[in-house]
Design the sequence.
């Protein structure tokens, strides 16, 4: 049984001239331990799809199944990392990380233990009492990642997590993300990431789902069979990048 399955998921919003369809009958499944990237042109509904998986946004029609059970509302087995960091500016690093744990009713002592553990894992030791305004963009995204990891979700959802960062910071965080995901003691084994950078998807993912221009339809499901670590200058890497780009361009 797949860990996560979407069946004919569509999403529409009210519009002056009728309903505006954003996603059209999206179907795919994700196995335990997979790293799946979702790519497509701007405005194709990638971020909306991620929010439907999480339960933040309801689907207009279709089903989202987790472990074979239909998900209605927020899925507590998922956690999200946002492009915009989504930190509360009046809370310290430690308090921002503990926020999701507190919402789940975790006892204070356990909240502190988990926050300290994931502060260490993302390299924020010494910044526990700092505030978001005192941090660089890369450090703020580390806080967002630690907050999501601290609830130890079955599925980590990432919405263009590196697009607001400079190139060098993004390279470093991509490498660290892979290290965290591949670590034997990591509770997070399944990742679904939305990105508009095709090279990033090829570098990180086991599979790449290609979504067409709106209304978003699934037009490609490609397995990435390149050894890790991946050589971004290699011929196989570039051939797969071109294939994904061609799929997007054909349906734009």
Sequence:
């Amino acid at each position: 049984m797949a860990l996560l399955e979407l069946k004919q998921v569509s999403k529409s919003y009210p519009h002056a001239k009728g309903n505006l369809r954003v996603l059209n009958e999206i179907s795919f499944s994700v196995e335990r331990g997979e790293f799946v990237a979702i790519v497509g042109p701007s405005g194709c509904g990638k971020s909306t799809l991620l929010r439907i998986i999480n339960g933040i946004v309801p689907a207009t029609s279709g089903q989202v199944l987790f472990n074979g059970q239909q998900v209605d509302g927020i899925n507590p087995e998922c956690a999200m990392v946002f492009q915009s960091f989504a930190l509360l500016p009046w809370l310290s690093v430690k308090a921002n990380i503990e926020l999701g744990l507190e919402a789940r009713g975790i006892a204070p002592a356990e909240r502190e233990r988990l926050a300290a553990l994931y502060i260490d894992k993302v390299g924020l030791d010494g910044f526990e009492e700092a505030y978001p305004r005192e941090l660089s963009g890369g450090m703020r995204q580390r806080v967002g990642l630690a907050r999501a990891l601290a609830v130890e979700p079955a599925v980590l959802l990432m919405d263009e997590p590196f697009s607001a960062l400079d190139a060098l910071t993004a390279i470093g965080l991509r490498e660290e993300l892979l290290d965290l995901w591949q670590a034997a003691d990591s509770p997070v084994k399944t990742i679904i990431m939305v990105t508009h950078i095709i090279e990033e998807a090829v570098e990180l993912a086991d599979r790449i789902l290609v979504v067409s221009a709106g209304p978003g339809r699934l037009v490609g499901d490609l397995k990435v069979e390149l050894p890790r670590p991946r050589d971004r200058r290699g011929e196989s890497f570039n051939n797969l990048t071109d294939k994904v780009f061609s799929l997007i361009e054909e349906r734009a």
Remarks:
- The helical segments are 46-54, 93-103, 108-121, 137-150, 167-182, 198-204, 235-251.
- The chain is about 35% helix and 25% strand.
